[in-house]
Amino acid sequence: MGKILIKDCTIVPISGPVIEEGVIAINDDRLHYVGPAGGLPPGWQADTIIEAGDKVALPGLVNSHTHAAMTLLRSFADDLPLKQWLEEKIWPREAKLEREDIYWGTKLALLEMIRSGTTTFADMYFHMDAVAEAVVEAGLRACLSQGLIGFQDSGGQRLATGVSLVKEWHGAGDGRVTTMLGPHAPYTCPPEYLSKVADTAAGLGVGLHIHLAETKEEVENVRAQYGYTPVALAAKLGLFELPTLAAHCVHLTAEEIALLAEKKVGVAHCPESNLKLASGVAPVAEMLAAGVNVAIGTDGAASNNNLDMVAEMRTCALLAKGITGDPTVVPAHQVVIMATLNGARALGLEKEIGTLETGKKADLILINKHQPHLMPPHDVEANLVYAARGSDVDTVIVNGKILMAAGEVKTLDAGEIYGQVTKRSSKG
Hints:
Its cofactor is Zn(2+). Helices cover 37% and strands 23% of the residues. It contains 15 helices and 17 strands.
């Protein structure tokens, strides 16, 4: 990895104010210095120098909820409600996917994420050892969970697979891979199964990644069946006593919002997927005001239909304003925090990533600010949220390794990936 010096860039460190004409010094996998050029320790010599006078540096974006290999199902079953989409289209097609399909679908997702500035993602799917393998090869950071459908796991084989993922892959890739257990949702996992998963996670020392309160129908059905809403049921069963990443959280009461804040549940807000499936609009402004840690996710490419976190930031900001009628809520600065530091917190990684500070992991991106739509540079964070595009990302560095430079991905072969996914997406 060596030493890298990024010169003359505009730095959005998240941990403090924007720094103009700053420098970033990287020593192996860590940030050695971030700040004004004059503060760089004298005598520090770089192996690689990146001239970045036309670039904005910020922490790598954190996609807090996705299903990476669902790139294989992009545009496969659009314009349907969630229940029908899952039960009639997605689940039958997923039943035909094999391990190698998941591997190549994940590689396509990683290529898309690198190109649009995501350096860390939380993934829940199956054949997760194949996902972990792809992540290690591509150089990204990921928090991986085996998706667990309780009604299909009477013998406990799926849970055993989730446990194996934790034991075999947690800490792989020089620590870039972390793990959780992934009970899909209260409507697919009965209470006794959720309790068993939570107990297992506690024994392993890992957290939980789960879908909660995504649709009104889900909330009504879970309440009718168990006497509690999905959030209340998860709390009653003790899930929130563990570190929990809860995807969606669209349909919440004020009491449930307070509970999520109290229990420090990380919420993965997926605005574009929720809009496309007409699931509703999460009360993001209310959650933030209550102290909930709200991060941003894309969900899978079958329901978004892209993995572009830059686009997701813009949708997050605009949707919150439109639904509340208040243009001041969820401002640009807050959205950038949601896409970086809040995502790191939701994954339990805030001590290592999410801000550009000396001593943290060297996970960062450079965005080309010399674009017509990013001029003039009145407010760099506003430009990032309201005007930038994923294609503006020029350079991606993870763990001190350059994964993309001048828009060229170094760790993945795009042609090979396109050929593989085209062949595999036409199966069955």
